[in-house]
TrEMBL record:
Species of origin: Candidatus Planktophila lacus
PANTHER family named in the record: BLL5978 PROTEIN, TRANS-ACONITATE 2-METHYLTRANSFERASE-RELATED
UniProt-listed Gene3D superfamilies: 6.10.250.3100, NAD(P)-binding Rossmann-like Domain, Vaccinia Virus protein VP39
Ranges where the C-methyltransferase domain occurs: 225-381
Protein name listed in UniProt: Methylation protein EvaC
InterPro entries reported for this sequence: MeTrfase_14, SAM-dependent_MTases_sf
Pfam families (alphabetical): Methyltransf_14, Methyltransf_23
Length: 391
């Protein structure tokens, strides 16, 4: 596999490859990839993902902020809010707009530059226990720490949890969201597995990891974002009542066998079936002379394209809103990336919905194409051609 976000200018100009496979540990309940490229190859000053490109996610993060912020607002002390993996500052903008003391920490200088343009206080760093200690010394302990789609990117979970333990105020909360292992299994969304996602978490695993450093999981709330995520709320031990959600959702995990390696073996064979079904469909459309393109050059699409071996014969281009990806080639399979405007000017017969997790937002945006007869191809939760009609 190539680096999921390494969009290149020329064919074969990237020769770095790693072996993408995953294992499940029945003791700690972590599903994790076996080999991860060094972090500097993935997160750097040309990182290609900007959170704020999705309006739906912007609203989601602002609502998330307001929900927890209101709790700490009751205190008269000066509030300090930290976001780990702040990206372009989409979430922290809500803190800044309220004039609150805040800090975003992210290792990718280019996305941080975007956050700074918005007036967000930031530090460029990979968050770990040393950074946590320094932040606490230079600022204060954090009343709220947020992270969204970040913790599953960090290999040394124990050191990470130690850092949270150090930085979190004794009455504070650490709130984070990650793609949920249960959603991935139920939908066979194998594209959640790529270099940046070291882990796909379930509640059993999260509870164990944070318990090891003296923290406690006090709530778990399912989210529809990113194809099915889980929000976890962590606090210092015995500070808050534990929500009933935790026991209920853990029971559900056990009932569904998310603690059993057999479940993951079955998931593996489901992935193989989806791969053959998608290839079969694309080859059929190609032989019938239809023009097929992709919608959104997501990180996830790198797994789909390389795992299924889909090249520009089968998908002639991918349209994407990220200017840094346009004019480049997709990692490994070298499919050209163009703007949505270019795609709309000469639409294909079929569009493969790579950003299936943003389906509602995208269909709303592209309703004109759909009404003109352009068809969509889904590969999650099953491979199918969909003709959407407006009610
Ligand atoms: O965890 C991660 C998630 C949250 O974001 C990261 N490791 C990287 C990234 O993953 P992804 O690229 O799979 O994320 P998305 O949000 O599913 O897709 C983003 C891509 O989709 C961008 O290239 C922009 C594109 N896009 C688009 O072209 N039109 C997205 C939307 C919503 C659109 O309307």
């Amino acid at each position: 596999m190539p680096i999921a976000n390494n969009f290149v200018k020329e064919i074969e100009s990237d020769n770095y490859r790693f072996n993408l496979s995953a294992s499940f540990c029945q003791d700690c309940h972590l599903l994790q990839i076996d080999e991860q490229p060094v972090k500097e190859l993935m997160f750097h000053d040309e990182y290609k993902f900007f959170t704020g490109l999705s309006e739906h996610m912007r609203i989601h993060f602002h609502e998330m902020f307001e929900e927890y912020f209101n709790e700490v607002l009751a205190d008269s002390k000066e509030v300090f809010i930290v976001e780990i993996g702040c990206n372009d500052g989409t979430l922290l903008e809500a803190a800044k707009n309220r004039g609150l003391r805040h800090l975003g920490i992210d290792p990718s200088a280019n996305v941080v530059a975007r956050a700074r343009e918005r007036g967000i206080s930031t530090e460029i760093a990979f968050f770990d226990s040393t950074v946590a200690k320094n932040v606490k010394t230079s600022y204060q302990s954090a009343d709220l720490i947020f992270a969204a789609n970040v913790v599953c990117h960090i290999p040394d979970l124990l050191d990470f949890a130690t850092g949270i333990n150090m930085l979190l105020h004794e009455d504070g909360k650490f709130i984070f969201e990650e793609p949920y292992v249960g959603s991935m299994i139920e939908k066979t969304s194998y594209d959640q597995i790529y270099d940046e996602h070291v882990y796909i978490f379930g509640i059993l695993a999260i509870q164990k990891v944070f318990n090891l450093v003296g923290l406690e999981l006090i709530d778990a709330i399912p989210q529809s974002t990113h194809g099915g995520s889980m929000r976890y709320v962590i606090a210092h031990r015995d500070k808050f009542q534990i929500s009933d959600n935790v026991a209920r959702l853990i029971d559900q995990e056990l009932e569904r066998g998310y603690d059993q390696v057999e479940t993951y073996k079955k998931f593996g064979s489901e992935c193989e079936s989806r791969k053959f079904e998608l290839l079969k469909l694309l080859k059929k459309l190609n032989s019938q002379g239809y023009k097929v393109a992709g919608y959104a050059a997501t990180s996830k699409s790198t797994t789909v394209l390389n795992y299924c071996k889909i090249d520009s014969q089968l998908i002639s281009y991918i349209s994407d809103s990220t200017t840094d990806k346009q004019g480049k080639l997709s990692p490994g399979m070298y499919i050209p990336v163009v703007s949505h405007e270019t795609m709309r000017a000469n639409p294909p017969d079929y569009l493969v919905l790579f950003a299936w997790n943003h389906e509602i937002e995208i269909l709303r945006k592209e309703s004109m194409l759909t009404s003109q007869g352009m068809k969509w191809i889904r590969f999650v939760p099953k491979v199918e051609v969909v003709e959407f009609h407006e009610n």
